[in-house]
Design goal:
five-stranded antiparallel β-sheet, 5 strands, 19% strand, globular, binds adenosine monophosphate, binds zinc ion
Amino acid sequence: MKDENCIFCKIANGEIPSKTVYEDERFRVILDISPASKGHAIILVKNHAANVYELSEEDASAIYVVAKKVATAMQKVLKCDGINILQNNGEAAGQTVFHVHMHLIPRYKGDTVQITWKPGEESDILSDALLSEIKKEL
Ligand code: AMP
Ligand code: ZN
């Protein structure tokens, strides 16, 4: 399924050219246009889903296999010191393009990429009541 107004649908399905690292029937992995670091790539799902909540279980299960494949190749070639694999859902989480995608961000010792948070307190841990509510949804 495609969304006619979605730029990542057009890129994923080849209507807009991109620097493609990998492609199969479900995904296209491209180089990010504004890379956080040398080699920053994003895995685009071909079937439109705005975020992880809408993602099909089939695409959800398959995406990490692609992440592993591409990350391994990137590490070998770029000789980066690490790779962050992450995926933003919702504006509050930093999502700017509302077609689900997974970031592969190679990391180099001493780089200035920021993917950090301040460790919280024990009092910030979810209550047992909320924990139970979440479990009931699964
Ligand atoms: P997010 O903030 O998680 O939604 O990530 C969106 C990412 O898509 C950003 O890193 C952008 O630099 C990248 N991006 C946006 N438009 C394009 C494009 N046309 N080609 C490649 N990457 C893009
Ligand atoms: Zn889309």
